[in-house]
Each structure stands twice: as structure tokens, then as C-alpha cells.
Amino acid sequence: MTEKRINYRSIIITIVIAAALLVFIALRHKQALIDYLNPAAVAVNRPAPDFTLSGLDGRPVSLSDYRGQVVVVNVWATWCPPCVDEMPSMEKLYQEFKNERFEILAVSIDSDGIAAVPPFMQKHGLTFPVLLDSQASIRSSYGTTSVPETFIIDKQGILVKKVIGPLNWAAPEILDYIRNLIREPFPA
User: Fold this and answer.
1) Higher confidence at residue 142 or residue 6?
2) I want to staple 151 with a disulfide (CB 3.0 to 4.6 A). Which of 73, 78, 80, 113 is the partner?
3) Is 13 found in the same domain as 45?
4) Domain residues for 7?
5) Distance (Å, whole) CA 171 – CA 182
6) Are 41 and 162 in contact (CB under 8 A)?
7) How confident is the model over 33-85, as pLDDT tens digits?
8) Are residues 24 and 115 in the same domain?
9) How far apart, in whole angstroms, are the C-alpha atoms of residue 99 and residue 103?
């Protein structure tokens, strides 16, 4: 009887250790796991999936409308403190390049949509374009897992950078990076 108990105990301990190891590996390789489970998610150096969402004026806006421009797609929400924190620097980025071949498409996933976003924009003095995605449909095509997540797309429509979490978009190195993308030639 003692031998069977020791064997069961050994088996249970082995299973617990194996499960803990699998959880540890999964946490260390979270993005690879997400990419494996969602192969449609975007990847750097691949074409960014097109999408069409309504702007604050109700008109449909598609990513493909901006082919030939550098586009920053920022997925955010008014209730997200890190999103709120990065908005002033996003506005500075927009002001820096708005007259060049550049656009920001800030995709709000607020469930209240049109009721929440315009007052937020006005309160914070934000002037860049906002698209409404109250159903968070961009999540499936872009594989977003949180907010903010930002995707920088070059003039050819290729995703060149993915940023998870907030960033100071007015930092000199970010401005230089965007400026260099804008200066790249676009084949006619």
C-alpha cells in the first residue's frame, strides 16, 4: 500500500512540475504563442491588413485610402490611463508631420464610441483623426491584446513597427524615425 501511495504522489508531483513548466514557457513566449494561435495577426515586414471604420463624422475611412503615406495606427480607449498619458505626445507627432505624407489613425475601441470620444478629444485638445471601433473588430485582423497598441505602416502599406504599450511619440528618436520613413521614395 505504501508503494502505491508513493507512486501516485510521484506522478502527481511530476504532473504539477510539468504544468508549471508549461505555464512558465507560455508566459516567456507569449507573443509567439499568440502568433501561433492567431496566424492572421499582423507581422512586421508584411502588408498591414486593410480595414474600414467610421470616423467621428460618420464617414467610412479605410487604411488603403492612405497608400503613399506613412500611417500610424494607434488602438486606444478613453478609459485607458496609459493611452491618455501618450495622447499629448501623439498630438505633437501629428502637428510635426500633418502637412507631409503622414497620417495618424487613432482607433478608439470605446464601447460608448461617439458618446465618449469627441468630448475626450476636445478636453485634451487633440486634432488627429479618430476612427470608431466599438466592437473592437480590429482585434481580429491586427491581433491586438491590449491598449495602447500602435502600428507604423510605410508608404507601401508594409507594417514596419509594432509598439505595445505607451510611448513618448514626440521623442527625438521617434520623430527622426518617422521623418526618415516619410523621406523614403514611393514608387509611382
Assistant:
1) 142
2) 73
3) no
4) 2-36
5) 17
6) no
7) 555 555 556 889 999 999 999 999 999 999 999 999 999 999 999 999 999 99
8) no
9) 9
Average pLDDT over residues 76-105: 97
Classify the phi-psi angles of 67: left when phi > 0, otherwise alpha if psi is within -120 to 50, otherwise beta: beta
| CA–CA distance, 122 with 113 (Å, rounded to integer) | 14
Residue 18 and residue 80 in one domain: no
**pTM, rounded to two decimals:** 0.79
Q: Interior CA angle at 84 toward 82 and 90, to 5°? A: 100
For the chain, the domain total comes to 2
Of 124, 125, 123, 152, the C-alpha closest to 42 is 152
Same-domain check for residues 32 and 114: no
Nearest CA to 131 out of 47, 81, 60, 83 is that of 60
Say if residue 19 is in the same domain as residue 108: no
As a whole number of Å, the end-to-end CA separation of the chain is 81
Beta carbons of 185 and 103 less than 8 angstroms apart: no
Cell triple for residue 3?
A: 508503494
pLDDT digits (tens, 9 = 90+) for 6-20: 578 888 888 999 888
